[in-house]
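Hey, quick one: can you model this chain's 3D structure?
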Amino acid sequence: MSQPVDDKRPLIGMIGGSGLYDMEGLSNTQWVRVESAFGEPSDELLFGEIDDQRIVFLPRHGRGHRIPPTQINYRANIDALKRAGVTDILSFSATGSLREDLPPGAFVIVDQFIDRTFAREKSFFGEGLAAHVAVANPTCSRLGNALEAAASEEGVDVRRGGTYIAIEGPQFSTLAESNLYRQWGCDVIGMTNMPEAKLAREAEICYATMAMVTDYDTWHPDHESVTVEMVIKVLSANAENAAALARRTVPGLQNRPDACPHGCDRVLDTAIITAPGARDPEMVAKLGAVAGRVLHP
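Sure thing. Here's the predicted structure for all 297 residues.
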């Protein structure tokens, strides 16, 4: 499935949990299966509209939270969104806090990541077609600005800027690890935004993360170590604010510039290193959605 050729409106992608795909104000909805060259996405995609702005939602863990972080097929998820015509991705993610001033219930517009995952496919490219994509600034400031403006209008207290450390999981951190990440200057900790953010950049899709703090991880001496029960309790309370932010942000993205001012949609111009004559035709075909702009100009 792809974006209709006669519809030039941007298509905003959202990745997150159930509080978003059943949010108030979402109309003209339809679940659609989108096939990927990289396997099965987490779920079907939910197409709909918010105030005449087209959106498509992907449940990161599948409906019912069936898929643990390591088993998520991040490549298939991003590839499917790209094939659907998505131009921008708003990612909503539950995280632990590594800072005293980011209590449970806080929201953070992340701008940096430290990737400590090790058991996941992290690139669309590989043998037969190599590329090195720049991710020094892995999120799109234009989307961050839109999220920040929406938070101000909604009266939701949001911190702009922060470093998200992604761990493999599915276990939570040890106390020693949690203290180490605090020494590194990390602000929040999660298990799902890597390699999601890197793959969105490879696919030339603008990407931003709204981190929703559910706990203090394990480091805080005055709070119990994180548990699933604790996460679910705060996550449920956060869901209403997350949905409100999503509803408020999306209409402001209707007037998308032809080219991202930060270059998110042009990173492959200088990334592919394999000479044209040495490229594996099967890899070229597999990358048709992700890199077709530069492979088939």
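One thing worth noting: The CA atoms of residues 124 and 287 lie 7 Å apart.
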